[in-house]
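Hi,

I'm pasting everything inline rather than attaching a file, because the server keeps stripping attachments. The sequence lines come first, and each chain or strand is labelled.
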Amino acid sequence: MQSPILKITGLHKSFGDNEVLKGIDLNVTKGQLVFMIGPSGSGKSTLLRCCNRLEEPSAGSILVDDEDITARGANLNRIRQNIGMVFQHFNLYRHMSVLDNVTLALRKVQKLPKDQAHARGLEALKRVGLLDKATAYPDQLSGGQQQRVGIARSLALRPKVVLFDEPTSALDPELVGDVLKVMRELKEDGMTMVVVSHEMGFARAAADHVVFMDAGQIVEQGPPSQIFGAPTHPRTQAFLARMSEHTA
Amino acid sequence: MDLKALVFSFFNLEIAWEYLPDILKGMVVTIELGIVVALTGLFVGMILAVLRALQIKTLNFFIICFADIMRALPPLVVIMMLFFAFPYIQISMSAFTATWLSLSLVLAAFVEEICWAGIVSVPKGQSEAARSTGLNWLQSMLYVVLPQAVRLTVAPLTNRVIAITKSTALGSVVGLSEVLNNSQSAMSNSGNATPLMLGAIGCLVIFIPVVLLGRWTETRFRWKQ
Ligand SMILES: Nc1ncnc2c1ncn2[C@@H]1O[C@H](COP(=O)(O)OP(=O)(O)OP(=O)(O)O)[C@@H](O)[C@H]1O
Ligand SMILES: [Mg+2]
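And the predicted assembly:
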């Protein structure tokens, strides 16, 4: 068995008295797409944000490619280069062109010379099909295009794993498809991904593993066919029933 | 009241010529003071706003106290405190220093508040995105947050700087030889209002470019759409 790229062990997170993550264990192997579902407030975003330490875990450990990112003295800014993050609201830098958005960290953190950073940035933009938008500004793009730039921005750093937090939730329905298509291509290229989303169709088609979270715990996990086809836990069943009501 | 008398008292060429050098010297002092006050106030205010973004509780308490007190006090009071009261605690300074320091502190307080509002207005997701790609706190501030905060602050900052540079005239109460003070003494020496008119013209010459600069910056800082 291959050692996991992302290994979460006994992860706890509290905000004050509010324990949001109550002991999460999860392994993600190279090239896997892990899909996370769960009701609002169950801690999905918090879990992802702990994985690049936008939130400080209260207890537990997170290994990325065998490096403990929660260790004291861990070099966060270097580690974060290995962990891409794609946000629900894109969070593109409005004052910069698309290419500058994508290359900022290459230039300022990896200190690549400008031409190399540009080459890498253009390569990332090509992967998301937006080569022609390199000189545009975020406000000139559709939501779907902005999110693809967000994906390109994390890809440009050549991360070992990319975390997606509801990447299509802020998009008009007709724009969702473009983003999901890019994500599927990434998956086919062998990128390791953890995706929090409500796009069950995408999960059925592209996910290797589905995790159902509720109230800060992983309630049930398994291949999509099992979780969507024959969920065993009543809370999973109830959640999926509610979701299909929604989409039907 | 006939026109001749008006011209004699307000636009008397002979007197104007006599006192022009004084007024010009005053203008130089006003310009120097305005520039150093604007630079110091902007610099200190911005540093304070950035420090406040570090979210260190005790430090923020002092920054907020400073900003609130300095914004509440009339600048004239601050100048008089520094110039007339501080010598009692063995701190004396020239009229120029007292005016410069007072106006800079007052400007810094306003600049801090304006810049802080600008920083807060940048959505948190911006710095989170920057940090998640490996930029450190300072880098995310410099390259992502501040450039966006600046756009929203240009207009109020410009207005504030214009207002404070105009209050350099307050230096006249501590005997600073700036343009207003010099015009006023020339007026009493000559018994004629012409020097004051010259002073007013001098102010226009100094401040109209500042106002125009303000207009120009406001139109420059817009999002590319
Ligand atoms: N910064 C914070 N401070 C305090 N509480 C927080 C913070 N962030 C999240 N929480 C709380 O943690 C819980 C889990 O939030 P989280 O955003 O992880 O849920 P989620 O599963 O992503 O929900 P959603 O589907 O609505 O995005 C919620 O109860 C939320 O109120
Ligand atoms: Mg969430």
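Chain B has a mean pLDDT of 90.

If the labels don't parse on your end, tell me and I'll reformat.
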